[in-house]
Amino acid sequence: MCLAVPGKIESIEGAEPMLRTGRVSFGGIVKTVSLAYVPEARIGDYVLVHVGFAISIVDEKEAAQVFAYLEEMGELKELEGT
């Protein structure tokens, strides 16, 4: 199943909105994702990430709830393998 996973932006690189990337932490696993769809995103924001793209900004409480559900369903294993 392919779902959006919440993560916290730890750092941002690039000034051009369509080329910005961020280092996003998913419960300790850090990946580089595109921030092209969320140009207003800042360090410390939580974003939903789908196939390497942050698609929306969410609040911390919602991010924690979604992450807990995904962990319970065993859907986070693919994060560890890449």
Account of the protein in words:
The chain has two helices and five strands; from the N terminus they run βββββαα. It is 23% helix and 39% strand. It has helices at residues 60-73, 77-81, and strands spanning 5-13, 21-26, 29-34, 46-50, 53-58. The protein has a five-stranded antiparallel sheet with strand order 3-2-1-4-5.
Provide a compact summary of the structure.
The protein has helices at 60-73, 77-81; strands spanning 5-13, 21-26, 29-34, 46-50, 53-58. By secondary structure, it is of the alpha+beta class. The radius of gyration is 12 Å and the shape is globular.
Q: Descriptors for this entry?
A:
23% helix, 2 helices, five-stranded antiparallel beta sheet, globular, single chain, 82 residues, alpha+beta
Layout of helices and strands:
Layout: E1 5-13, E2 21-26, E3 29-34, E4 46-50, E5 53-58, H1 60-73, H2 77-81
Low-confidence regions: none
Count up the helices.
2
CATH architecture: Roll
CATH topology: SH3 type barrels
Shape: globular
CATH class assignment = Mainly Beta
Question: N-to-C SSE series?
Answer: EEEEEHH
Strand residue percentage = 35-45%
**Spatial order of the strands forming the largest sheet:** 3-2-1-4-5
Q: Average pLDDT across residues?
A: 88
Radius of gyration: 12 Å
The biggest beta sheet reads:
5 strands, antiparallel
**How many domains make up the coordinates?**
1
User: Helices and strands: which structural class?
Assistant: alpha+beta
Distance between the termini: 16 Å
Quick one: how many beta strands? 5
Helix proportion: 10-25%
